[in-house]
Amino acid sequence: MQRSKKLGSPPASSPCECVKPTLETGNILTEPIGYIESCFSAKNGTPRQPTICSLSRACLRIRKSVFNNPEHSVMGLEQFSHVWILFVFHKNGHLSCKAKVQPPRLNGTKTGIFSTRSPHRPNAIGLTLAKLDRVEGGTIYLSGIDMINGTPVLDIKPYIADYDSPQDLIYPLDELSLQEREQKLKDLPCSINMAGNNEQELRTEGFRPQSHSREGKHPADQIAKEKYLKEKDSTDVQHLLHKFKSTTADCNVETGVNQNSGRDVGQIGLHQSKECINNSLSMVEGDAVMQENSETQHHSIVGDAAPASCVASWVKDSPVTTLEVRFTPNAEMDLERFSLEDDTADASITSFKYFRSVKEAKCAIIAVLAADPRSVYRRKHCQDRLFYFSMDTAHITCWFGDGFAEVLRIKHTDTVENPVWQCSLQPASS
Ligand SMILES: C[S@@+](CC[C@H](N)C(=O)[O-])C[C@H]1O[C@@H](n2cnc3c(N)ncnc32)[C@H](O)[C@@H]1O
């Protein structure tokens, strides 16, 4: 799509055909509320979604040109564990986009732009759910991000599980005709694997769960469900929930810290160290505790029920496999040099800006590579090429083999010429 093409209903235009930016037509002029300072300096190697690397950090200073007192604008935000960040893909390079794209997880197969999270979309707007680590004055500190340094941010909104994750559907029986119930059952996503008996029971009781992807599952969702289990007092609803649980066991709806964190563990790869996995787990638990403290439980009993959503099967069962990540002895030694105290790999004094230890940096590198950050083009046509990317002050050189990524060298970005653009033939666009 070319930018000049008009979209939908005609926008208000002036005699010279310029599109007037007005709220009513939806043609607004945006002003960034701030710019992301992130551990990723280029698109290459930047995670494709925030869930890939929980150790990726960033900060955002609210601009004084937007609010005289930036700290006023983030007042109360510290009560939330996660925030939505709306931003501009300012490094897309061009403003045109195609109606069909090839997301890396589909490894070359095309699908409609609006069924993907591709950066190349008509309005180049990105949406990331980030963990809010802390708020200091008019600055917010984030982790689990997928935005590069310098990304213009348009808005911040608190993540509120009750509002932002679909709730399951419990229909009052008398409000649904038999026909409506039949229709709702037909609407069930095909990926749901329901046992015959349960399906029958659901049919008769008008209860309709939808599958919930384990991969996309958020820790906060688990909290909503646990709260529901603790607080519910209606025996009818308990009965329904029991059916919901038994029915959805096949759909990965059953929860628990291990299952929630399965995403992190899976993506970190086969050779992930135990510490890395423990890190991921404790982060999931940390999220959960924070969310418990936030004021999000204002919904009715139905609203508090287990969350439900459904995603395209290619998102969960991508043909692109998780890679094993290895480090050569040279790369291991390179990494140790980032520690400024020779004998303590865990030293908090490092030459990193965002990572707090060498171990954290290693976990983050593993997480990024395990998810295979290569573009489809590169995966198919440049298999024997070296792959470069930067994270924090580390410039990483690696190569990919069958089912694995191997880190060859890790240099300080200060010692590398043009570390940003040196990356690859093709940008790892999504
Ligand atoms: C697939 S997009 C997803 C972003 C967001 N989570 C979303 O769903 O809208 C993430 C990728 O966008 C690219 N990216 C990040 N920040 C960008 C920016 N400011 N301009 C252009 N591309 C960017 C990186 O290559 C990253 O891997």
UniProtKB/TrEMBL annotation:
<dbReference type="GO" id="GO:0089715">
    <property type="term" value="F:tRNA (L-threonylcarbamoyladenosine(37)-C2) methyltransferase activity"/>
</dbReference>
<comment type="similarity">
    <text>Belongs to the tRNA methyltransferase O family.</text>
</comment>
<dbReference type="InterPro" id="IPR023370">
    <property type="entry name" value="TrmO-like_N"/>
</dbReference>
<dbReference type="InterPro" id="IPR036414">
    <property type="entry name" value="YaeB_N_sf"/>
</dbReference>
<dbReference type="InterPro" id="IPR040372">
    <property type="entry name" value="YaeB-like"/>
</dbReference>
<keyword id="KW-0489">Methyltransferase</keyword>
<keyword id="KW-0808">Transferase</keyword>
<keyword id="KW-0819">tRNA processing</keyword>
<dbReference type="Pfam" id="PF01980">
    <property type="entry name" value="TrmO_N"/>
</dbReference>
<dbReference type="GO" id="GO:0030488">
    <property type="term" value="P:tRNA methylation"/>
</dbReference>
<protein>
    <recommendedName>
        <fullName>tRNA (adenine(37)-N6)-methyltransferase</fullName>
    </recommendedName>
</protein>
<dbReference type="InterPro" id="IPR036413">
    <property type="entry name" value="YaeB-like_sf"/>
</dbReference>
<keyword id="KW-0949">S-adenosyl-L-methionine</keyword>
<feature type="domain" description="TsaA-like">
    <location>
        <begin position="30"/>
        <end position="168"/>
    </location>
</feature>
